[in-house]
């Protein structure tokens, strides 16, 4: 299923999702901007998406991927094949895009198993028909995640998904997310367009502030001696049903506990600052 919205003459947002009982479980959004396609939707909607690009006569010059997750990179193989365009991806993603892992069953149902893609490495500065693209490294949501600054527009993939995060994936590093948000806040842009929402600059700032506040709250509880399960109970016991069903459906790949552990620095690898208690945990 596909929904599109023309933002300006040369700027289109395209949301896709595989429908079950007339509606998709989840939508993911990607963008067409002046000949560039930023992310590509999921494998299960690839065919529909490329048909749509052809029907709309959108002149596609290149594909830019923000990260390797299947709901962002999943249509790229077919864009490359049918529209004969280059796919650019973060250098760190090239290997996993060329040899994708088998993803868990629930993601195969929602998005589909990704097909191998031979992508070219993104450069920090690129230009396509006079449209200048700056690639900004914004890791955290995934190890390879980047954002793009194109004119005064930010394309931020999954860097922001919820202004008040409650649940995250196991692989996410919230410390890196906060650093990346701080980096983005300091750039010159008006709006940030992502896979699951659109934010103005204040919205990006607010998300960062909310995460810093959450970090403070969690750190206090941790220093009082509560373990991560107890912190989840204390802070996130009253959550929407959707959160609980997502934890169950994903077998814990998505969870509130992931967020608590990540905020405490337990997922933070490269320049790790671990709370002292973690070492004996
Ligand atoms: Zn993602």
Structure commentary:
The structure is a single chain. The chain is of the alpha+beta class. α6 packs antiparallel against α7.
SSE blueprint:
Layout: E1 2-8, E2 11-16, E3 19-20, E4 23-24, E5 28-33, E6 36-38, H1 46-55, E7 62-64, H2 70-73, H3 76-83, E8 86-89, H4 94-98, H5 105-110, E9 120-121, E10 125-128, E11 131-137, E12 146-150, E13 153-157, E14 168-169, H6 174-185, E15 191-194, E16 197-200, H7 201-223, H8 228-236, H9 241-249, E17 254-255, H10 256-263
Parallel strand pairs: 6-7, 7-8, 8-9, 13-15
Antiparallel strand pairs: 1-2, 2-5, 3-4, 5-6, 10-11, 11-12, 12-13, 14-17, 15-16
Helix pairs in contact: 1-3, 6-7, 8-10
Bound molecules: zinc ion.
Strand order of the largest sheet: 1-2-5-6-7-8-9
Q: How many whole angstroms does the radius of gyration measure?
A: 19 Å
Oligomeric form: single chain
- Stretches with pLDDT under 50, minimum 5 residues: 272-281
Overall 3D shape = globular
- The percent range for strand residues is 15-25%
Mean pLDDT: 93
Strand pairing plus helix content: what structural class?
alpha+beta
**Largest sheet descriptor:** 7 strands, mixed
Say how many strands there are: 17
Spatial gap, N to C terminus: 46 Å
Name the helix and strand elements from N-terminus to C-terminus, one letter apiece: EEEEEEHEHHEHHEEEEEEHEEHHHEH
Helix coverage percent of residues? Answer: 25-40%
Number of helices: 10
